[in-house]
Amino acid sequence: MKHSSKKFSIAGRQINSSNPPYIIAEMSANHNNDIDRAYKIIKEAKNAGADAVKLQTYTADTITLDCSNDDFQIKEGLWKGQTLHQLYSKAHMPWDWHKPLFDYARDIGITIFSSPFDESAVDLLESLNAPAYKIASFEAVDLKLIDYVAQTGKPMIISTGMASEIEIKEAVDTARASGCSELALLQCVSSYPAVASDYNLSRIPDMRNKFNTVVGLSDHTIDNTCAIASVVFGGSIIE
What is residue 68's three-state secondary structure? Predict the structure, then answer.
């Protein structure tokens, strides 16, 4: 069965090469544990013209181990000296914030969805009627999670920053076999910030042709050059 790359929409917005690119504003951990800041980010994303704002749904316990071994220590940057569990305890989006933030986004007219990192996160987002799901690059090899998300029947966007071509194919095959009929792939470089010269934008049309999906860019660079260029390469989604 050939899957069409043209049938993809989120909350009624058609997303393909015939429409303007779909712009997703990523909140990540920029709320800094302040829900008022989270509200403001959503409002500013709406004011800036973004189509959607995206959260991340996990807890420290669902994303890492409470362990102080060397592999779990942060050795450089702003969080040097902390463990991964300590970092994620501060960075995660509290689960009781999700409903008020979803309600607020809907009230002001911007689409909101999230990246789940385990099945319990999917259950929470389903209870809020999330219109779509994003699979983060680090989870693109978590076929169990992809299978669980696909069973919701919602559109799914997968970032590919940590995946080989074989792993991308496994993710796509799993999603489709489990019921996902609307699938998109994003070219991504999983470094923060990413260097523009590391982005091989020719991967965007390559993935579209090989996997017959909507394609786009998850941009980790510090300006908008790659994002603009990705549209020339056929990108229909920019995160």
Answer: coil
Supply 183's token pair: 């699938």
Query: How many CB atoms are closer than 10 A to CB 7?
Result: 14
Q: What is the DSSP letter of 152?
A: T
Evaluate the CA torsion angle 60, 61, 67, 70 in order and state its sign: negative
- Cα–Cα distances (Å) from 146 to 59, 154, 158, 209, in that order, read 19, 12, 9, 22
In the structure encoding, which two tokens stand for residue 159, read together? 């970032």
Q: What is the pLDDT of residues 77-106, one digit of tens each?
A: 778 888 988 888 888 899 999 999 999 999
Distance of CA 74 to the CA centre of its chain: 24
Beta carbons within 10 angstroms of residue 183's beta carbon: 22
CB neighbour burial string for 122-140, b if at least 16 within 10 angstroms, e if fewer: bebbeebebbbbbbbbebb
**Helices and strands, number each (H, E), in the chain:** 9, 10
pTM of the model: 0.93
